[in-house]
From TrEMBL:
Localization annotation: Endomembrane system
Protein name: Sodium/calcium exchanger membrane region domain-containing protein
Keywords attached to this entry: Ion transport, Membrane, Transmembrane, Transmembrane helix, Transport
Transmembrane regions listed in the UniProt entry: 49-68, 74-93, 105-128, 140-166, 178-200, 233-254, 291-310, 405-422, 429-450
Region (Disordered): 1-27
Residues covered by the Sodium/calcium exchanger membrane region domain: 76-254, 294-446
Family: Belongs to the Ca(2+):cation antiporter (CaCA) (TC 2.A.19) family.
GO MF annotations, alphabetized: calcium:proton antiporter activity
Membrane topology listed for this record: Multi-pass membrane protein
High-level lineage: Eukaryota, Fungi, Dikarya, Ascomycota, Pezizomycotina
Highest taxon of the lineage: Eukaryota
UniProt organism field: Rhypophila decipiens
Length: 492
């Protein structure tokens, strides 16, 4: 039996087809760096939709230059926001080129990592820019919203568009059951871990007193104070983050070592169905030198742009854009743009032309498209989100996993809806449209959701607690009032 560990994304020999030599998927047939060829491959990108994104490249220098001018904060944010899209697309494409030069499992892991690198950089910039003890520089609510927003954007918007565009060409698209089983299972485990600190906080916030008082606080719950509760939630968040990162390592290890992993199942099924595979292998590709150059350039640019973008967040919030909308909708959209374009293109499929000039529509590689939707969500929940919590711990900043109840409900309901659509193992354009509509409804609700200083659904500030010390005299007066009320009840 042929070993299943044989690389599918990298071949040690050239393939032949159509009477002429075709290089393997990762081979460029060249070496070194050739500027003309580099720009040509960069422009063509991985698909037509990604190529259209390259028209935004002129915005990049404009966004960098405009930051030298005073004021213009909203224009700076918009230009920088648009400039991130082509640079993130270049990271995704160059990461894909690099992955194709690697063995199958290593290549897929590398491609997934580069698909989330923009998100990791964004989270790092946000936590570094956060100012503890300052309302104006408090970026933790935005980071928390961005963590869940990234998951929701992948599950609802990206997956919905994949189902929709894939369903326009075919009545229904069938995908392997392992996508539903493993994908939704891991998401539920990740959601469980992420939401435990929020559940702990919500259950105990009404029992916490504002201040410890050795003389009289014992009758109102001992010394379980607001500060103690916050410290406990922070400790739980740190421990949970370590556990989730361990889970992500175990998941990657299982996929890398198991002969029947989700990588083999998903890739093999669609690889043999892809009617234009030979045409893909004939496309010009980056050399390894060009790939490293593209990765270095794109990573440097996107890091600089994200730093400039985060600097404008306070001004955008002051202009009227709610924190929840910014974190849950706007930031995930720009950080995941390249990943979404790739997934939608794979679900849509491609047109190939026969020798007689007739057009044949290739089957959309829906399993790979689903992988590009589910895998980043799992990575965000198991690794990227916990990573920023641990980084905040190292930097001495109180980043925790205590999400707003509003966001908790959105995440749980979204996972349930997606799991229900994946359960039957096939999709159509109607299911895709419904997922997108759900995402639009969430975006509308986020626009009207007030900022954390007003919305305190999962904060002690929103509970009925008077922030004042309880003196012995006040305790005695309260007891007198209680006794009087009991006596009045008996008379009635």
């Amino acid at each position: 039996m042929e070993q299943e560990t044989r690389p599918l994304l990298h071949a040690s020999h050239a393939e032949s087809g159509g009477g002429h030599h075709i290089a393997s998927e990762g081979e460029s047939g060249r070496s070194g760096f050739h500027p003309g060829h580099f720009l040509k491959v960069l422009w063509r990108s991985s698909c037509t939709a990604a190529m259209l994104v390259n028209f935004l490249w002129p915005v990049v220098p404009v966004a960098l230059v405009v930051h030298f001018f005073p004021g213009l904060h909203i224009y700076k944010f918009i230009l920088t926001y648009l400039a991130v899209i082509p640079t993130a697309n270049l990271i995704g494409f160059s990461g894909q080129e690099f992955a194709r030069k690697m063995p199958k499992v290593a290549g897929i892991l590398i491609e997934t990592t580069f698909g989330s690198i923009v998100e990791i950089i964004l989270f790092v910039v946000l936590i570094v820019k956060h100012k503890s003890g300052s309302e104006e520089g408090n970026l933790i609510p935005i980071i928390q919203a961005a963590i869940l927003g990234s998951i929701l954007t992948n599950l609802l918007l990206c997956l919905g568009l994949c189902f929709f565009f894939g369903g326009l060409r075919q009545t229904s698209q069938k995908f392997h059951a392992i996508v539903s089983e493993v994908g939704t299972g891991l998401l539920l485990v990740a959601a469980f871990g992420l939401l435990i600190p929020s559940a702990f906080y919500s259950a105990l916030k009404s029992e916490a007193v504002p201040h410890a008082d050795n003389q009289g606080a014992g009758s109102l719950g001992g010394e379980f104070t607001k500060r103690k509760l916050q410290e406990d939630v922070l400790s739980i968040s740190h421990a949970t983050s370590l556990a989730l990162i361990l889970a992500s390592i175990l998941w990657v290890w299982f996929q890398a070592k198991s002969q029947h992993s989700i990588f083999d199942e998903v890739i093999e099924m669609d690889e043999h169905r892809d009617a234009d595979r030979a045409a893909d292998m004939e496309k010009p590709k980056f050399t390894m030198t060009e790939t490293i150059t593209a990765l270095t350039l794109s990573l440097g640019l996107v890091t600089l742009l994200l730093i400039l973008l985060v600097e404008q967040i306070e001004h955008v919030v002051e202009a009227g854009v709610p924190d929840q909308f910014l974190g849950l909708i706007l930031l995930p959209l720009v950080e995941k743009a390249a990943e979404h374009i790739t997934a939608i293109d794979e679900a849509w499929g491609k047109s190939s032309y026969n020798a007689d000039g007739t057009c044949t529509c290739a089957d959309g590689v829906i399993n790979v498209a689903l992988y590009h939707c589910l895998a980043p969500s799992i990575q965000t929940a198991l690794f990227n989100g916990p990573l920023v919590v641990l980084l905040g711990w190292i930097l001495g900043k109180p980043m925790d996993l205590n999400f707003e109840i509003f966001m908790v409900v959105l995440l749980v309901l979204s996972i349930l809806v997606v799991g229900n659509f994946l359960r039957d193992g096939e999709s159509n354009w109607l299911e895709g449209a419904l997922l997108v509509i759900v995402y639009i409804i969430i975006a509308i609700a986020c626009w009207y959701y007030p900022n954390p200083d007003v919305a305190t659904s999962n904060s002690l500030n929103g509970s009925i607690v008077v922030d004042m010390p309880l003196s012995p005299d006040l305790i005695r007066q309260l007891r007198v009032l209680i006794d009087e009320s009991k006596g009045a009840d008996k008379l009635i």
